[in-house]
Amino acid sequence: MSSVNxxxxxxxxxxxxxxxxxxxxxxxxxxxxxxxxxxxxxxQHSDRTTTRNMLIEDAIESFIEDAVALLTDEGIELDVTDxxxxxxxxxxxxxxxxxxxxxFNEHQWYYxxxxxxxIPKIRYIALYVGAPQSAITHYAKVAPNGFQYDKNEKKYRxxxxxxPIKLPNPIPLGNASPLAVRSPKYTTLQKLFTAAxxxxxxxxx
Length: 205
Fold this sequence. Notes:
It is built from five helices and seven strands; from the N terminus they run H-H-H-E-H-E-E-E-E-E-E-H. With about 200 residues, the chain is an alpha+beta fold.
């Protein structure tokens, strides 16, 4: 199949998006100007369009993930029913932090914050690796009782069940802001096999 056909098919494919509700929030003018400048800089550097709204959404998602993890660590339960469909969590990783040694050689990943209520549903983990890869290339099955809480770190160490498995096709950042990969993202194994870019992994919450 030609690359032209591939491009046309990708345009025709409608990516799943979370349900959205319009929200009006006032911002200081200088913050709006800075957001626009950041979006412009990212767009020019990556050759992918990044907008002010993308940055705001990514920042809010990152804040929510961190806030939920912090409250969970403090033993504070949120009155939120999690009906999202996921069996996989994607964590950020950096080459310079020795991710290859931990993930591929030690068959584990650490240290990460995960809401305790989500752990029973997580069967797989994947890592988004920053530059120069800037993509998800492998996933791994979580071992039985693989989530081990470290009291000193107040985070989890995750033990893998065997070697990480290479994805048929790497999942690049695409149109998502780099802020989107700073916190865990919950998705499904099926989407790891079908997603063309990072945003397509998002599940409906």
